[in-house]
Predict the structure.
Amino acid sequence: MYDVVIVGGGPAGLTAGIYAARSGLKTIILEEKVFGGQIVFSADLENYPGFPEGISGMDIIDKFLEQAKKFEVEISYDGVEKIENDISCKRVILTNKSCITTKTIILATGASADRLGCPGEAKFIGKGVSYCATCDGAFFKGKTVAVVGGGDSALEEALYLANLVKKIYLIHRRDQFRAVKILQDRVKKNNKIEIVFDSVVKEILGDKFVKGVLIENVKTKQQSRLDIDGIFIYIGLTPNSKFVSDLIQTDEYGYIITNEEMETNIPGIFAAGDVRKKSLRQVVTACADGAIAASNAQKYIEKMKA
Amino acid sequence: MAVEVKLTTDNWEQEVLKSDIPVLVDFWAPWCGPCRMVAPVVSEIAHEYEGKLKVGKLNTDEEPDIAVRYGIMSIPTLMIFKNGEVIDQIIGAAPKEYFTQRLDKIL
């Protein structure tokens, strides 16, 4: 039996792993897809303390992983289908149908990028539709692309792409951005970026590859077509909490509700990072959550013994 | 021991198109975070399917011609070749089981 099973290998899960294993708990991290989660899509982390020159998302995750391995955290590429809670132990049912028993669980499954859901989007994934500018930007050198969204991610990615492409349409459904001011200022100053406010994407057009996008002005209802070779979508996130929705309390959006100790409604099950209902979702706050969750998992185990 | 083959324009025909067994090609680049993170999964697959499947890595930065030839616009992309033809492709990071299920259907 494990002391701690951590579901999700992003900054929250890896930090929880480091703290749990370092305090002597038998710990495993389960990652379904990609260690690092959303942050590996980021080319440059400017605001994580300790790296004044900035650091890429994947470089910092490499360091997190190295540190977790140093403390002998077990890691495994497995998805979780379901969690069952018993008085004496908890069971984690994996998508490969095997079962792990554990004393505590830390849910650090993060959030996934939302899709537009418009015609053409699914058809052109990998053929001009992208959710990762750092991965795919280089395929659009000297071309024209659109970026959809108005938050920090959308503006950061537009600025990253501006170094590679000829022109960017930054499409946002409101008449102002949600992103922090420093990013808004940089976007407005960048002469490769044309801001298209009050507009939503109705359809992504093309043949084998993306050739254009049909947008509609939400105020005038006027539709127009922009000629583009690629479209990068950053419209928001959905928490990955569905697999525990029968057991764990969430808010109306699916974010897991915890107290300051990262405790969920089920004793011995904690949540950390972006999947949790909170006001600021950053690597540094995910790490903090992970540390608190691991420390409280340890306290829970000690209380079980007593 | 690395069982993955480094693919280039020069060995593409020999290693992929003329291969006796199906080939899984991982299109990747060093600056692509998800590619780097998917790499261990690809390695695990290479070991588990050794003998039945050849696993090759193509760096789209070093070999842009091949990336263009196959219309790669998003990485990681995993393509499965059989008898010189693309018979399946998976774009983006996915759970390992998703890869193995698709492979098991084909092999």
